[in-house]
Specification:
The protein is mainly β. It has one domain (about 10-295): Methylamine Dehydrogenase, Chain H. The chain is about 0% helix and about 35% strand. The protein contains 1 helix and 21 strands. The strands form 7 sheets. A 3-stranded antiparallel sheet has the order 1-2-3, with no helix packed on it. A hairpin with a 3-residue loop joins strand 1 (about 40) and strand 2. The chain is globular, with a radius of gyration of 17 Å.
């Protein structure tokens, strides 16, 4: 496996360096993770480098990456989105012509046929291929309210409020809109037909009923630093920096896969971060000691083997 080195840059570090992006104050004693310096699409990944530029590799959504500096980067399906310090989005890959570059956002995320952002008033805005027979109309009619983080699945999406509430919308099937009641969330990540999140005690919660169910809508026991969902699997970072994954293992070629792949077979070692989302059948994590990006699972788009030769390390 090849690797690329980078160091995560948080929003607080950006503020300290004079970069401003509108945001909201969270409830007292509630720390919500809204960082996006690393994210996957179906068969590609993007990371912000030392110059705050998006470095992408793999196929589809890695093509045509802008040279502009960003404070957040998001991937999904065959598309990617970067958000600059002023809150203006740039899009590449599929549906780039639909990018709302005349609006400003505090957060953005890409799905498969759609994308959603949170504008500077905290309102949800969604766009995409509304004429595609596979894209349900409900995706483009998000709930009203004030939100700080949004995550997109295949036919559904979920958003997190500053108070730790979660609202989901889109295709109302397979229980993927049935958010657990009475839970205060600090993180959420949507897979194809499920969503997982962490609460204030760092315990995991998952909901939905995925096709080819391999337990990816079943939460792991324990406490975790981070949760990241893929199309058919998820991975979680434990408090002692280990990566645990659950979900579908591809024992033979399926869909775009040209060979068997196991995105749940996390390597041994200590890790410091996961992407905001995982891929169709690949997973990645950042090694603690080296800051190397390590990936496993499918490699049909070069998402595991074609990591760029770039010094993607923040000063």
């Amino acid at each position: 496996m090849k690797s690329v080195t980078y160091k995560s840059l948080t929003l607080s570090a950006l503020f300290a360096s004079g970069v401003f992006l509108p945001t909201f104050a969270s409830s007292e004693d509630l720390s919500i993770d809204t960082s996006r310096t690393f994210s996957s699409g179906a068969s590609h990944l993007c990371v912000l480098d030392e110059d705050q530029q998006a470095v992408c590799w793999g196929s589809s959504g890695s093509v045509g990456t802008p040279d502009d500096p960003f404070v957040k980067v998001a991937g999904g399906g065959r598309q990617s989105i970067g958000l600059n310090a002023a809150g203006t989005p740039s899009c590449w890959g599929n549906y780039k012509e639909l990018c709302p570059s005349d609006q400003t956002f505090i957060d953005v995320d890409a799905g498969y046929y759609h994308a959603c952002g949170i504008d500077t008033a905290g309102a949800l805005v969604c766009w995409g291929d509304t004429g595609n027979e596979n894209a349900v109309a409900e995706l483009f009619n998000p709930p009203q309210g004030e939100y700080v983080y949004v995550t997109n699945g295949w036919f559904h999406a979920c958003a997190l409020t500053a108070q730790g509430g979660v609202d989901c919308w889109g295709e109302d099937t397979r229980s993927k809109l049935d958010v657990p009641e009475g839970v205060v969330f600090t993180q959420i990540s949507a897979g194809r037909e499920f969503t997982c999140g962490l609460d204030t005690d760092q315990a995991m919660h998952c909901w939905g009923e995925p096709r080819n169910d391999r337990g990816q809508a079943q939460a792991l026991e324990g406490r975790f630093q981070q949760i990241s969902a893929g199309y058919f699997h998820y991975c979680a970072l434990t408090l002692d920096n280990q990566v645990l994954c659950r979900g579908r293992v591809f024992d033979e070629p399926s869909g775009p896969l040209q060979s068997p792949a196991d995105p749940t077979a996390a390597p041994e070692g200590a890790f410091s971060a996961l992407p905001a989302k995982l891929g169709y059948a690949h997973s990645c994590a950042i090694e603690t000691d080296t800051n190397d990006v390590v990936c496993w699972g499918a490699d049909y788009g070069g998402q595991q083997s074609d990591l760029p030769e770039v010094n993607a390390q923040y000063p």
